[in-house]
Amino acid sequence: MKRILVPTDFSEHAENALKAAVLIAKKTKCELFILHLLEVPNQINDTITGGSSIPEEMLFIKKANEKLQKITEQPYLAGISVNVSVQYERTFSGILAFNKKNKIDLIVMGSHGTSGIEELLLGSNTEKVVRLSEIPVLVIKKDVRDLKFKNMVFASDFSPETKKPFIKMRDFAAIFDANLFLVFICTPNSFKTTLDAEKIMSKFIKNYEIKNYSLHIFNDTNVENGIVNFSKTIDADLIGLCTHGRTGLAHFFTGSISEDLVNHVTKPIITFKI
Questions:
Q1: CATH class of 148-273
Q2: Which segments constitute the UspA domain (predicted)?
Q3: By CB neighbour count within 10 A (0-12 exposed, 13-18 middle, 19+ buried), where does 75 fall?
């Protein structure tokens, strides 16, 4: 991991994400990229390319750059390589384009928790970034003063296609020397006996070098509740999930589960693309 992106709308939630990114950067010696996106009228292109002046839009750009400069002067960023940028695109598409151009390894986004992501990522932008991003996305829900990455949950069906996401989750846990709890959620609509679930998980994990881990099977009414309730029982600091691109979360992670968890769960969530 070399480069971390933090999109910001200058809100408290975005600052929480930045502080979480700083924790990771200090562990990995990553560069931080702070991005502010301006969804301005198409006429701004005339200004950028030397056309007639548009005072209002230029004022927005100036203010955004001033705020970004103030962010870089915060004491908690001391000793960290920080790059700032203002882009003129829609939020989710701008983030995805910036990732590819700058070879970002991790996105860290701020969220309002149970109310969903506000200001920075309104409505479907949250689900779009999580669902379409080719790189891991970490969503932070609260002030990071009490944030620690000691107990991490990885919820999966442990199918072959989750191997690459699991490796990324394993490596992320290793950065913090965290305890990794691997959990298979059983529901009435996706039932497996304990014996069958144990065989699937044991076969999956034997292919990897990993320490500080444990295997768990958890029964609940549905997958979302299972992930939330299991995470509470072990006092998880972070929940890891696999995403499956345009079709949502793989196998039992279907429908609105990904969006519901990202928008409603108060714990930090990290997602990995299959």
A1: alpha beta
A2: 1-141, 149-271
A3: exposed
Give the model's pLDDT for residue 59: 81
Instruction: State the residue for tokens 């299959």.
Output: 274
Domain boundaries, the chain: 3-143, 148-273
CA 255, CA 190: separation in Å to the nearest integer? Answer: 14
Q: Which CATH architecture has domain 3-143?
A: 3-Layer(aba) Sandwich (3.40)
Q: Which of 232, 222, 231 is closest to 185 using CA atoms?
A: 222
What is the distance of C-alpha 60 from the center of its chain? 28
Query: How confident is the model over 177-195, as pLDDT tens digits?
Result: 999 999 999 999 888 999 9
Q: Is the pTM of this model over 0.90?
A: no
Q: From start to end of the chain, where are the E strands?
A: 3-7, 31-37, 82-87, 106-110, 137-140, 151-155, 179-186, 213-219, 238-243, 269-273
Question: pLDDT for 23-40, tens place per residue?
Answer: 999 999 999 999 998 875
